[in-house]
Design brief:
By secondary structure, this protein is an alpha/beta fold. It contains 10 helices and 11 strands.
Length: 298
């Protein structure tokens, strides 16, 4: 049997989060030997070593990373189950205003421009309708596994992600497009020859469709300046340092020192949407947030 109890899952997560057996024991109020015994039992039943042990602590093996993702997601489902069962019981008992509505933490992973310009209005509407929901937003760079990886690893209930042919919704998740945003040329306001400036770029601005479009534009040079994020790019453009090709979300609230020029009907675009697990997609809080995101995006 490979069934693990919730307490065993919590031990695995605590060891991973603290980086060691002693630290996990302190967090859990257990002895180090009890933590070690629990991990060994989990490894025996799962048939794999979950942690590399060393002088510097404990780190998940590849098999351990898989186990931890499932453990975090399973523990989160148990929390959601408890919250929603209590809400249903409260509603059935007619406990007054607020009975039966979603409540508790709602963990969201979002890349920077979505967190700045898409989420705030949705969360404002969400918490006004459901004051019991407590949003917890983490900024995650949309590179590599990005926000979808946070959901897959059980660290977020919902991720705001870039979606497309090169970054589809992972098969283990569900999701949908919220907004299709176009790219524009951004350059210093009033510059007599903005296309002569160096091209500034940042890592997250990286869909292959956009790169293919860039490659076909003879007037666009290779990027010679790299910045940390889109806010830094805007600041550099505003001081006259260069030009950039940026998506619409990154240009919300752009300073008057920059000028935004439309790139025409053949401009590149990117899709911004949400991803979540099939199980959490039916939870009250996640469904409520998706409704609000769709409402403001529409």
């Amino acid at each position: 049997m490979t069934d693990l109890a919730s307490r065993e899952l919590r031990v695995l997560v605590a060891v991973a989060d603290t980086g060691g057996f002693s630290a996990a024991a302190a967090v859990l109020g257990m002895t180090q030997s009890a933590v070690s015994h629990s991990v060994r039992g989990s490894e025996r039943r799962l048939g794999a070593v979950l942690f590399d042990r060393g002088r510097s602590g404990a780190s998940p093996t590849p098999a351990g990373a898989v186990a931890l993702a499932h453990a975090r997601r399973a523990l989160r489902l148990l929390e959601v189950m408890g919250s929603e069962v209590r809400a249903a019981a409260s509603a059935a008992a007619g406990a007054g205003a607020g009975a039966g509505v979603p409540a508790g933490p709602l963990r969201i992973a979002a890349f920077r421009s979505a967190a700045l310009h898409l989420l705030p209005r949705a969360l404002g509407r969400l918490t006004e309708r459901h004051p019991g929901i407590v949003p917890e937003v983490r900024i995650v760079r949309e590179v590599g596994r990005g926000t979808a990886g946070e959901v897959l690893d059980g660290r977020a209930d919902l991720g705001i992600a870039t979606l497309g042919t090169t970054s589809p919704v992972p098969p283990e998740l569900v999701g949908g497009v919220l907004v299709e945003e176009g790219y524009a040329l951004v350059h210093p306001a009033g510059h007599p020859a903005p296309r002569s400036l160096p091209l500034i770029d940042w890592t997250e601005n990286c869909t292959s469709y956009t790169r293919d479009w860039w490659a076909g534009q003879e007037w666009l040079p290779p990027a010679t300046v790299r910045a940390e994020d889109d806010g830094t790019v805007l600041s550099m453009v505003g001081t006259g340092f260069g030009m950039a090709v940026m998506p619409e979300l990154s240009l919300v609230g752009a300073p008057p020192s920059v000028e935004i020029t439309d790139l025409g009907p053949d401009r590149p675009t990117r899709s911004v949407g949400y991803v979540t697990t099939p199980e959490l997609a039916s939870s009250l809080a996640v469904r409520a947030l998706i409704r609000e995101l769709r409402a403001i995006a529409g």
